[in-house]
Amino acid sequence: MTTPSGGGAFRRLLHPLVRRLETTVHPLRYLFLEITQRCNLHCRHCGSDCGKEARLDELSTDEWVAFLAYLAQNFDRRQLALVVTGGEPLCRPEFDRITAAIHEHRLTWGMVTNGWALSEPNVRRLVDAGITSITVSLDGLRETHDWLRGREGSWDRAVEGIRRLAQSGIPFFDVVTCATPRNLEELPRVRDVLRGAGVRDWRLFSIFPKGRAKGDPELLLPPDGFRALLDFIRRSREELAGTGFHARFSCEAYLPTDVDRAVRDEPYFCRAGINIASVLCDGAIGACPNVTRTLVQGHVRQDDFKQVWEERFEPFRDRGWMRRGPCEDCAEWKRCRGNSLHLWDDEAQRTAYCSFEMAGGKTRATPAPRT
Questions:
Q1: DSSP state letter for 219
Q2: How far apart are CA 244 and CA 304, in angstroms?
Q3: How does pLDDT run across 191-233, given as a tens digit for each residue?
Q4: Cα–Cα 20 to 30 A to 168, which of 23, 214, 256, 265?
């Protein structure tokens, strides 16, 4: 395994202190705005079961515009970044009114997209609205990507959009890839496609058992597949160091220390509810959009968002309630804190799986008191 640079080693040494401080102070850094559950694809792994039509009582455009004005008045624009997501954001009626309001209030914003609608005019619309970052999904080579995304032609549209973004002047964009048993062997060629398209940042992650993906063996990596994914990322980082192309594992999943430092720039830290919040399409207030709706803490139609953030997010900041099942007596608890919050399984009342063990770590029981 690789070892971190001096600066990286120092950050990792200070990481426990930084995590405690961030959890205590909990400055809001990223706010996800799920502006719609409408989507132009039908992805096999969708956690929200999105479709062509809205399935919830979505906030009106006027409500989103009013909420954006509220954010500008109540939060420091220099510290807060908005991430517009869905569904597919570009399927939202009056999308331009929402982004114009963001731009009018001088709020920093980015977007997550499946890439289908990244035509040249649409990319110009985003640039004109002041977008500063964008994330596009590419989940394998053509056949595999189209299979996962549920629409023929989605790979071609996404790759064309990625090439446009590389020439657009948007300050930052990256590509994310969902690793599955079907595309693991394709990852080296996907990497070549991305480099050829002008991509500099590539983020990979494993699909977790939620929504349509729950219990689907064609989507969920077994332990040996998970380890193969991490090893591919490690090798890519070593082989391409200094080339301007950067691969990394996503922020999810607590891993053994040597594995973590080999596949990430910063140590694992689930920031859901600590630095990250979300407003879902119907106005529900929670942590990151992938977290179970049973942990919703309020609603923008009736609650003051800042008050909810300051006073009702304790379940995200003190996660002792997650210490159940195999986590109850695990010696890794103080560092793991129950793994990524989106892995919490409401039905089983435990974390869905242990990524530490899947990555080859050996857990052991400990009589340490609960914290």
A1: T
A2: 43
A3: 999 999 999 999 999 999 888 898 888 999 999 999 999 999 9
A4: 265
Taking the model in full, what pTM does it have?
Answer: 0.93
Closest to 180 measured CA to CA, from 156, 153, 147: 147
CA dist 316 → 17, 235, 337 (Å): 18, 34, 10
Q: How far apart are CA 359 and CA 205, in angstroms?
A: 13
3-state DSSP assignment of residue 267: coil
* Cα within 13 Å of Cα(247), Cβ side: 25
Could you identify the residue written with the tokens 């490690």?
A: 234
The alpha carbon dihedral of 86, 90, 93, 96 has a sign of: positive
Rg (the chain; Cα; Å): 20
In three-state form (DSSP H/G/I as H, E/B as E, the rest C), the secondary structure along 30-91 is: EEEEECCCECCCCCCCCCCCCECCCCCCCCCHHHHHHHHHHHHHHCCCCCCEEEEECCCHHH
How far is residue 253's CA from residue 364's CA, in Å, rounded to a whole number? 18
Residue with tokens 């807060």: 80
CB 64 within 8 A of CB 94: no
CA distances from 355 to 102, 133, 248, 343 (A): 37, 29, 16, 10
